[in-house]
Amino acid sequence: MYQGIYNGSKKHEPDLTHVLKRSWKSGLEKIIITGGSLKESKEAIELAKTDDRLYATVGCHPTRCNEFEQEENTPENYLQSLKTLIAENEHKVVALGECGLDYDRLHFCEKETQKKYFELQLKLNEELNLPLFLHCRNAASDLYDILSNYKFKGVVHSFDGNLEEAKKFIDLGYFIGLNGCSLKTQENLDTVKNLPIEKLMIETDCPWCEVRPTHPGYKFILEENKKFPSVKKEKWQPDHMVKSRNEPTNIRQVLDIISALKQEPSDSLSEKIFQNTMDVFFKK
To answer: CA-to-CA distance for 66 and 116, rounded, in angstroms?
Structure first.
């Protein structure tokens, strides 16, 4: 989407430079680019190399786990390629992932295949000891059971489960990552309200997971954090955001909503959450 391509159709010129410019102007100091496959992880690292403030994760998303066995791959070769990519780019790779389980989209990859190659990546991490960037959709019980066998740190990102599920991951030592997809319903807001700040992180997962006007938390976003005007992709302008395409700068909207739910000033809340993130991903 940041290349101007939507569903295979080019709508405007590449504009990642403009997206990043808005991000830095908004006060972001670092951005982690998520790798969801071997190919994507390589691309994430190459992008990260263009700016000292950009970092990447390396891993295989649960819906892509068939790639371990596709074409000329063997599971061992695919895993070794992930390991080599990490070893050759230690200064840019801050986590293993995005990996985990997704039972909402089994049409992409069946449950047993997901579990098999999630475990294989965790076995690799016994050697690497990187933080984990975890994906969980309608699979909290199985994800918890598997993670219980290991002693890693990391974050269950884009969390949209209930309070009981969150507490179980927290008890294992994991953080809970919140974005627009974590704040879609009143039930989501009630859950977030009861999560401990010392175990929270915030994110955008852009270009996905925007906070939409129809979401119950939208009313808590400060007007100054809706400041960038947006246009339809067909009417793209360099100084405008694209409607329905999320950007890193919108992380401030997630903060606003959590600040309102917690009844804590956004400045002090952001400092705590920023430190959580630094402690997990950037503590050498």
So the answer is: 10
Backbone φ and ψ for 26, nearest 5 degrees, come out as: -80, -10
> CA 163 to CA 170: how far, in whole Å?
10
What gap in Å lies between CA 249 and CA 254, rounded to an integer? 10
CB atoms within 10 A of CB 283: 9
- In order of start, what are the domains of the chain with their CATH numbers? 13-159+168-281 (3.20.20.140)
The helix (H) or strand (E) run that includes residue 146 is: helix 140-147
Which residue type is seen at 183? L
Q: Which pLDDT value is given to residue 284?
A: 67
* Beta partners for residue 70, in sequence order: none
Q: Which pTM was predicted?
A: 0.96
Residues 6+ positions from 195 with CB-CB distance below 8 Å: 163, 166, 170, 176
What does the pLDDT look like over 71-116, one tens digit per residue?
Answer: 788 999 999 999 999 999 999 999 999 999 999 999 999 999 999 9
Tens digit of each residue's pLDDT (9 = 90 or more) over 207-230: 999 999 999 999 999 998 887 789
Rounded to the nearest 10 degrees, what angle do helices 186-193 and 163-171 cross at?
40
Burial category of 43 from C-beta neighbours within 10 Å (exposed 0-12, middle 13-18, buried 19 and up): middle
